[in-house]
UniProtKB/TrEMBL annotation:
One of its GO terms (biological process) is SOS response. Keywords: ATP-binding, Manganese, Nucleotide-binding. It comes from Photobacterium chitinilyticum. The lineage of its organism: Bacteria, Pseudomonadati, Pseudomonadota, Gammaproteobacteria, Vibrionales. Residues 406-427 are annotated as: Disordered. InterPro entries: ATP-grasp, ATP-grasp_RimK-type, ATP_grasp_subdomain_1. GO terms for molecular function: ATP binding; metal ion binding; ribosomal S6-glutamic acid ligase activity. This is ATP-grasp domain-containing protein. The keyword ATP-binding applies.
């Protein structure tokens, strides 16, 4: 008879120097085999790390990768095809940057504030000079945004240029300002919400972070918010997940952030451990049960005590009847298994825009270490290398007027006029559906249905349009798509645009 130990995968905990550890072995209470650990030491540590994983015969590597190491771990994952990463690098795509959150939400038609992302100075300035304010500027890429310190509300083009000059953010990531009465964080395990709470800004303020004076409470989280977070979790195929969802003054919901990397009390990390043990060895570990809206009761416990509580479990109600009729379960959502997917949904050759725009005239797909693959002591130097270039522009002209003249005009408008004014006097932009883009690619000689669908499903509508307009070489990462086909695609696209 085979012993359980022989059939269990070897688990390794992924840790990184200078990065707080999300998991501990104690989160996997009851796992009968030794749990290994592997530490990435930054710098030129990639090959040593790969060798250590192989030497320890690790089957499953569990842990989040910080943004500044994401591209390196894409390469590490490819060098370890037999090792299962949890979460997968695809599930962690949104961890890397705000722009990746935007691409993710666009692909899966998840609501987000209107967002513009610019890699070229002239394009960013044209937008800054012609848009309406207020706007929100965020640092897209880098360490976690603790306390909202890298989120800025700007009220004029002049202020936008000054901000980019001081902060040197790259790319220029600019969102419409959404008047919010609160936001809600939802944490999920196996696509089931296990914790949710409101974060409300102090009176007269707009940032909801508790470090900025915001308040928290756990009661009456809207069903629509939970449903939206479940949609996002399933789209990411994430074993564990968190969403920050804005609640506007009109009770509209939009995703602000979503990722596998989030702060969580130890008991929630225990729940994730229970789920992962069931996922990896269902023959030995039972499916965990999480009571729906448990947070409403647990949230009544003082936070100083709640953050020390461990191994919280729930009994599962069983219903019986005299007549045998169906007794519905009390679960609003079910804990679901994620599926190990081969291949990559978000290959870096197509989606690592930051590095591609900083590689100059050479081949944009040449292997190199990411610019900001560094620990916190080197972050300032890395940010300098990621300057947007906007900081070099000192004079701003807005729609033919100086910024001061524009502010005077706006001050004379009524509130209704400001709310209904068009964002800019630009030509209407053609909106495409996925089916239209598939049909376009099929119309190009040498491209069939399978390849056309693969391009659109991999890049999404936004990614396809960006590639066609700005980075056509991305399309050559698809199999059997060489230079001649790319040239044919671009000829057909120009003709298509003229007809439109």
């Amino acid at each position: 008879m085979t012993s359980p130990k022989q059939s269990l995968p070897t688990i390794g905990m992924l840790y990184l120097d200078h990065v707080l550890r999300f998991f501990d072995k104690s989160n996997f209470k009851g796992w009968p085999e030794k749990i290994e650990q592997v530490v990435y030491h930054w710098g030129n540590d990639k090959q040593r790390f790969i060798d250590e994983v192989k030497r320890k015969k690790i089957d499953v590597l569990i842990g989040n990768v910080p943004a500044t190491a994401y591209e390196t771990f894409r390469e590490i994952a490819r060098a370890l095809p037999k090792v299962r990463f949890i979460p997968t690098l695809d599930s962690q795509f949104s961890n890397k940057s705000k722009e990746n959150v935007t691409h993710f939400c666009h692909k899966y038609q998840l609501p987000i504030p209107k967002t513009e992302i610019f890699y070229q100075v002239d394009e960013a300035l044209a937008y800054i000079n012609n848009t309406q304010y207020p706007k929100i500027v965020k640092r897209s890429y880098g360490p976690s945004n603790y306390g909202g310190y890298f989120v800025h509300k700007i009220d004029s083009a002049e202020e936008a240029v000054r901000l980019f000059s001081e902060k040197r953010y790259y790319p220029a990531y600019i969102q419409d300002f959404v008047p919010m009465k609160a936001d809600i964080r939802v944490m999920l395990v196996g696509h089931q919400p296990v914790c949710a709470f409101w974060r409300r800004p102090p009176e007269g303020e707009w940032l909801t972070n508790t470090s900025q004076g915001g308040s928290m409470d756990y009661q009456d989280v809207p069903q629509e918010v939970l449903d939206l977070s479940v949609r996002a979790s399933k789209a990411a195929n994430a074993e564990y997940w968190a969403c920050d969802i804005a609640v506007s003054t009109k009770d509209e919901y939009t995703i602000l952030e979503c990722a596998t990397a989030f702060a969580a009390f130890p008991y929630i990390r225990d729940w994730i451990g229970q789920y992962l043990m069931w996922l990896l060895a269902p023959q030995y570990f039972g499916k965990p049960h999480f009571v729906h809206k448990n947070w409403e009761e647990l949230g009544k416990i003082d936070a100083s005590l709640l953050r020390t509580m461990r191994h919280i479990t729930f009994g599962q109600a069983s219903s019986s009847t005299d007549t045998g009729e169906y007794a519905p379960a009390d679960e609003q959502y079910s804990v679901l298994k994620t599926h190990h997917m081969p291949g990559e949904e978000w290959p870096s050759e197509a989606w690592n825009f930051q590095d591609m725009h900083h590689q100059g005239q050479g081949n944009p797909y040449m292997a190199q270490e990411p610019v900001a693959d560094c620990h916190h002591e080197d972050q300032n130097q890395a940010e300098h290398l990621l300057d947007s270039g906007i900081e070099d522009c000192s004079n701003v002209t807005v729609m033919g007027k100086t910024d001061t003249e524009r502010q005077t005009d706006v001050a004379c408008e009524t509130d209704t006029e400001i709310e209904t004014a068009p964002e800019s006097k630009t030509e209407s932009v053609q909106v495409y559906e996925p089916e239209q883009l598939v049909a376009f690619f099929k119309g190009v000689k040498g491209i069939g249905q399978t390849l056309a669908q693969e391009i659109v499903e991999t890049l999404g509508v936004t990614g396809v349009l960006y590639a066609l307009e700005h980075e056509p070489q991305q399309l050559m990462t698809f199999r059997n798509l060489k230079q001649k086909k790319l040239e044919a695609i671009l000829r057909c696209w120009k003709e298509n645009e003229r007809v439109s």
